[in-house]
Structure prediction request, 153 residues.
Amino acid sequence: MALINWLGQESALSQFERAQRDFNRLLTFFGPWSTSSLWSTAGAGVYPPINVYDDNESYVVRAELPGVDPKDIDISVANNTLTIKGKRETNVKGENVSYHRRERNFGEFRRAFTLPDQVDSGKVMAHAKDGILEIRLPRAEQAKPRQVEVKVN
Prediction:
């Protein structure tokens, strides 16, 4: 709904909101490849959705990757940055295919996160089960909290 000022003209804010809405519609029309390699289309969010938590020994990253073959996932850790790259193939092919609705995207994706502490990259482990990728990144020894005893004289 456009805001109309007392002269009967549309406000600059309303014009901007309308332009933004039109632009988002245009991007949705062209598909996910038009916005970024992160598959961020209007309403779709960032792919893959990820949760990161800390269990005091490791950082654990859980990513939802339904339909992604684990062989198509590349995980790297460098300079406290975790990078997850991969590809989801489409199983619908052919010249006569016409989508009526397309919310599940395919193609390449990439997510990168800066970790809050140093991790022991030699002990990073990852496994995939039921469309969930879990990456366990053990903290480096120097990054683990230590209990310091206070001596009384």
Q: What stands out?
A: Residues 12-30 form the longest helix (19 residues).
